[in-house]
Design brief:
The chain is α/β, with parallel strands linked by helices. The chain is 40% helix and 20% strand.
């Protein structure tokens, strides 16, 4: 059974308001139902836990790596350590372009990794793969 993208809940985690806006705008073609933001891993983890307790969990998290406090990799590790968040799909969106970072991120269980600034077509391709793995379809397609 396919799930419409209008039912999808996304969390964007980045300490840069401009980066959060850029990712949000890149998601427009996917007609996401609900998009929330967090400025660091601590805030994101609390929002993820709250969403689960409310019965409206996030489907995908887009997270930067470098943030004050809990960074994106620590957030990913925290989510992987809990049964209720272990399967949450993460795309790491970071300015760190080191190939070792991408390999380490994927080995930790992220669905994908992209370096910013990114080309919209590459981002859309990666998000489409995540949608496919979740059995999602874009509203109206």
């Amino acid at each position: 059974m396919k799930i419409s993208s209008s039912k999808i809940r996304v969390l964007i985690v980045d300490d840069s308001a401009l980066a959060r806006l850029f990712i949000r705008n890149a998601l427009v073609p996917f007609k996401i139902g609900a998009i929330d933001n967090a400025v660091n891993g601590e805030e994101a983890f609390l929002k993820i836990q709250h969403a689960i307790s409310e019965g409206e969990p996030f489907n995908i998290v887009f997270s930067d790596i470098s943030m004050p406090g809990m960074n994106g990799l620590q957030l990913l590790d925290a989510c992987r350590s809990k049964p209720e968040t272990r399967a949450l799909h993460f795309m790491i969106v970071t300015a760190q372009g080191d190939k070792n970072d991408s390999v380490a991120t994927l080995a930790r269980g992220a669905a994908d990794y992209i370096t910013k600034p990114f080309v919209a077509a590459e981002f859309e391709k990666k998000v489409s793969r995540i949608f496919e793995s979740l059995g999602l379809e874009v509203e109206g397609d």
